[in-house]
Amino acid sequence: MSQAPFARRLLTITASERYGPYIVHRAADPDGPAPAPGQFTMLSAAERWGGGDDGRPFLARAFSVARHLDGEAHYLLEDVGPGTRRLCALEPGEQMWALGPLGRGFDEPREGRRAVLVGGGIGIAPLVILADTLERADTPASAIVLGFRDSERARAARLIEGAVLATDDGSAGHHGPCSDLLAAELERDPHAIVYACGPPPMLEAVRSLCAEAQVPAQLALEAGMACGFGACFGCVVPRREGGYLRVCVDGPVVDAGELERVVEPGGAERVAAA
Q: Is pTM beyond 0.85 here?
């Protein structure tokens, strides 16, 4: 699994695409190591990165790599605060600093198990590259379940072909949480491995369902990260057997069996890390 050197590189945005409130930045990254599905990159704007009323710069933000094709990296972003707002405002031709790929990604399916992908909101990002990877390996996902707040956000489902949708308000697909669809899928055929990323309540529902059905699951945890290298302990979550996992180095992908339950990681502003 690729790990970035302790040096950031300057990327130029080549295109931006909007999916409701989400935006996908494509950036030229010819020298970047190929990421494994589930790994992330620390991103910051090359210019005007922070400041504001108190004059302090922003910390870099962690984002899952959504795709990495032909020397170009794709990142799915949402404006949820000052730092992400600045990144979302970048336009083609502007630049951002990137440090990555970092962290631990997904493991491939084993024991003949079929892959079931479950994503919530901006947490679909690492599932995009995972779906691509499984397709290229001739082991495509047997089911892809994506949940969003509403139909505007559900536009991002276009990034993954063949997804079944759920929305909280019922404006697209199933009216209810995506865990409803997962439960039906596991009841139909439990010989599966589940790959999931999304907000903690969604991941806890996935973890609980899989534990009850005795289905293995790999969870990409979302967390605000200050460093990305495990130095600051700002993104820790408790282990089942005691102690803590650092999401940035022990994850962001962890085996569901390592967790008693999924909790909100400690740390800075939660963004699209996984």
A: yes
